[in-house]
């Protein structure tokens, strides 16, 4: 039962990223992030109130709030990357970077990774190189790449992964006894920040079209549902297995992008995408032992 719940959480994580990226193609990213964060907060508060009472401290909530600001930045960069780049490339890169950051932090703290983790890091670096390759023959629109020479969205994806990795690091400082309240703190800090950015950019709710607005709200609900399912899976059985399965979420984004948007990747990029997914599994599985 646990593997099924963990895989469902991975599928929903990937679906949330797809929905967020899709909405960002139809309206400003700042608006998408603000709406998705707010809708996710509503779901989180509802679930938290239904769960048994926890014992959070101000410190736990404080760590959550700090994590929320980093996570908000990571989501904004991810949605922007998904909006301007190829989803099948962007999603695996972000996932790889998000997993590598905690591993590097462990190295700084004197924790030596095993052979599986080291192999995963090497595979992750190779994946980034592979998915960053431009096809030899491309049409005029595909040739329009940023000044960096990388495919559109790659730089955003890299920084997004770093920010999301920091989110996981900071959130881990909260005590287990605090339950879901650090996540509540994270969203409580992220929502005002996202709304402020949206206001500065001149976003007006009145001018937003109903369809992309609903898509952005759905992204937040699906993302938070995935968080809850992952928490359930992590408490049902083997934690390393749950983490590994949940970390395969880019596969869902890639499949949706292929089916719904008809995205096509050339051979090197497909190989890189596969390497990225395997790298995430190796790093998380090896680092959890």
Compile the SSE list and pairings.
Blueprint: H1 2-24, H2 29-50, H3 58-84, H4 87-108, H5 115-131, H6 154-171, H7 181-200, H8 210-234, H9 239-246, H10 250-261, H11 267-287
Describe this entry's structure for a reader.
The chain has helices spanning 2-24, 29-50, 58-84, 87-108, 115-131, 154-171, 181-200, 210-234, 239-246, 250-261, 267-287. It is built from 11 helices and no strands. Helix 1 packs across helix 3 (58-84) and helix 1 packs parallel to helix 9 (239-246). It is mainly alpha-helical. The chain has one domain.
Tally of discrete structural domains: 1
Order of helices and strands: HHHHHHHHHHH
Number of strands: 0
**Quick one: biggest sheet?**
none
| Class based on secondary structure composition and strand pairing | mainly alpha
Taking all Cα atoms into account, the compactness measure Rg is 18 Å
Helix content: over 70%
Mean pLDDT: 81
Shape designation:
globular
How much of the sequence lies in strands comes to: under 5%
Low-confidence stretches: 137-144
Number of helices: 11
Brief summary:
The chain is mainly α and 289 residues long.
What distinguishing features does this structure have?
globular; mainly alpha; 289 residues; 11 helices; single chain; 74% helix
